[in-house]
Amino acid sequence: xxKPTNYNKFTNLHLTHGHVLTHKAGGFSAxxxxxxxxxxxxxxxxxxxxTPGWMRARINCDALDRAADDSDVLSVELCEHYSVAPLH
Length: 88
Prior knowledge:
By secondary structure, this protein is mainly beta. It has two helices and five strands.
């Protein structure tokens, strides 16, 4: 996969700095705007409607590149990071 070029569609991208990108276990709650209301990307979980045209979603850290490259994802506002701690 080539390096994504559409990270300009993200807001609050600073939340991905530091340990988040090195520890892929976790993700973000986000507000996303999709090109088509019926579109449901398989790499994110759509939780419901935020406002008309905007959806609440969860996106795993390892799926951020796919969201950046997806032409049907128009914008992504990262809201908060959640982590999944590995069990030892």
